[in-house]
Design a protein that fits this description.
Blueprint lengths: L5 H15 L4 H9 L2 H5 L14 H32 L3 H8 L8 H41 L1
Amino acid sequence: MIYGSSWFKGIMKDRLHACLLSLNLIGYVLELADNAYAKKHPTTFKIPDGAFEDSEMSDVVTMFIKENLTAQWESIKQKINHSVKMKANISVLTKSLASLGHEVTMAHWVHFAFLCSTFVSFQTVVEQSKATLATQDSTAVVEKGWR
């Protein structure tokens, strides 16, 4: 079965990685998440015609895409987090995110900087939310003690 081969998995991982680093990230992510992009453009992923017509093959491809996207997003998140903590130059992050053979343009650098900035903003919101919840919890405990 072609879908279980390391050749097919390697191609799929490479193509998914390219989509995740694409400048059209939102477009890809929205369509990749529900497998719509792969169904519309099977040749991009070297998926044979008719693969999505067979429910079993479609399920295998869909599961592979979902698992691989999750793993790749986690890897990207870890690399961005490490880059932010180390206060590394954007070029260091770019080298760690871009695979060999993928052309990196100035637009990609801007995209990666945007991802870093968004990640830092998200982390700030999470920390502020935790602090607010902790304050609310301690206030509730104090109020219960006075009653």
